[in-house]
Amino acid sequence: MGRKPRRRMVHWVTFGFNDGSVIACAPERKLSSKRIKEERIYVCPDGVQREYMHKPNELCTWSLEQRIRSCDILSNRLNTRRAIRELVLPEIAALADTLQRIEKRLDAIERYIGDGEAS
């Protein structure tokens, strides 16, 4: 049986807009710790070590193929955000309500037990 492969974080260079939407990315060699320290580079938890930001009005200067690809990526991002907002956030809110009810019950139990020990 072979050895288990080591999993290393992939480091990325990204191209996107100021709102955080990424329209392209490419893997990149991990920068040395010396370079990261000297140039004060922040490597985010996702492994992004360099980001290039574009202004939205630069989109019209790109080739037709680049614009089509960027619009597809941005529409997928928007649809994903909407799906999360509609499907996941209500479930999280329901869990938070349930947790609050449990905390109230626990407080009542603790008060009841505390009153019984005092007498």
Architecture overview:
By secondary structure, the protein is an alpha+beta fold. It has 2 domains: 9-61, no CATH class; 67-119. Helix content is 51%, strand content 18%. The protein has helices at 33-38, 64-118; strands at 11-17, 22-28, 48-54. The chain has a 3-stranded mixed β-sheet. It is extended. The mean pLDDT is 88.
Notable traits:
single chain, 119 residues, alpha+beta, 3-stranded mixed sheet
Strand percentage: 15-25%
Number of structurally distinct domains: 2
Mean pLDDT: 88
Give the low-confidence spans: none
Structural class: alpha+beta
Topology:
Elements: E1 11-17, E2 22-28, H1 33-38, E3 48-54, H2 64-118
Parallel strand pairs: 1-3
Antiparallel strand pairs: 1-2
In short:
This protein is of the alpha+beta class and 119 residues long. Helices cover 51% and strands 18% of the residues.
